[in-house]
Structure formats: structure tokens, C-alpha cells
């Protein structure tokens, strides 16, 4: 990952452009009417890109969904974007899954 990249989920990286990110960054510096207009514009752009991403012509998401991954890997990925109580819950789930894996290994 490029060190100059901002922290984004994989979905955000697929549906958001640099221009959209710059627009969203500018929102707090505008008057309320401008904030509303640019916020809605940025979200509409993301929605359009999301719909396009999941269209039958685009197989990128279907390929990602076909990969079989370890649930712990998924939880660790999600954890990067969580904080507070949500992060604590993910840590508890990780601990439970780790214990379950140890039990499974011991039973084999």
C-alpha cells in the first residue's frame, strides 16, 4: 500500500476517487449550504460507483467473494476501522475463535 494513501476500507478504495476525497475534505470549510451540496454530491458519486461495481458487467466483487478466507483474517481487517466498544467486541470474538481453533487442533 502506498504510504501516502489515507486509511480506507477495500470498498472505499474501489468506490471513492481522489477527487471525491478532496471534496469531502473541503466540506468543513464551506458555509452550511455548500457543505450540504458537496456532501450530497460526494455521496451520490460513491453510490453511483458502488452500483457500477456490483453490476453484472463488473466481476471484481464476485471474484473477491469467491475467495475462502480465515474468519480471523476478516476480523483483523475489520478491526483496523473500528474503535471503542466495537474494537473490544472484535477482540473478544478473536479470542473465542483462537480458543476454538486450539480445541480443534487438540482434538485432531
Q: What is the element layout, followed by pairings?
A:
Elements: H1 10-15, H2 18-26, H3 32-53, H4 60-66, H5 71-79, H6 84-107
Helix pairs in contact: 2-3, 5-6
Q: Which class do the helix and strand fractions yield?
A: mainly alpha
Sheet having the most strands: none
State the helicity in percent bands: over 70%
Mean pLDDT: 83
Q: What's the total helix number?
A: 6
Cα Rg: 19 Å
- For the termini, the CA-CA separation is 38 Å
Low-confidence stretches: none
Estimate the global geometry from the Cα principal axes. Answer: elongated
Number of DSSP strand runs: 0
Task: Give the SSE order as H and E letters.
Answer: HHHHHH
Account of the 3D structure:
This protein has 108 residues and is an all-alpha fold. It is 71% helix and 0% strand. It contains six helices and no strands. The protein is elongated and about 60 Å long. The mean pLDDT is 83.
Features:
6 helices; mainly alpha
What's the short story on this structure?
71% of the residues lie in helices and 0% in strands. The protein has 108 residues and is an all-alpha fold.
Amino acid at each position: 500500500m502506498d504510504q501516502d494513501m489515507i486509511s480506507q476500507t477495500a470498498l472505499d478504495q474501489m468506490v471513492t476517487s481522489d477527487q471525491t476525497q478532496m471534496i469531502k475534505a473541503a466540506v468543513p470549510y464551506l458555509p452550511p449550504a455548500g457543505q450540504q451540496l458537496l456532501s450530497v454530491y460526494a455521496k451520490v458519486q460513491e453510490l453511483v460507483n458502488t452500483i457500477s461495481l456490483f453490476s453484472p458487467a463488473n466481476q471484481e466483487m464476485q471474484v473477491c467473494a469467491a475467495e475462502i478466507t480465515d474468519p480471523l483474517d476478516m476480523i483483523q481487517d475489520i478491526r483496523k476501522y473500528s474503535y471503542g466498544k466495537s474494537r473490544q467486541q472484535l477482540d473478544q470474538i478473536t479470542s473465542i475463535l483462537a480458543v476454538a481453533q486450539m480445541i480443534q487442533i487438540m482434538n485432531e
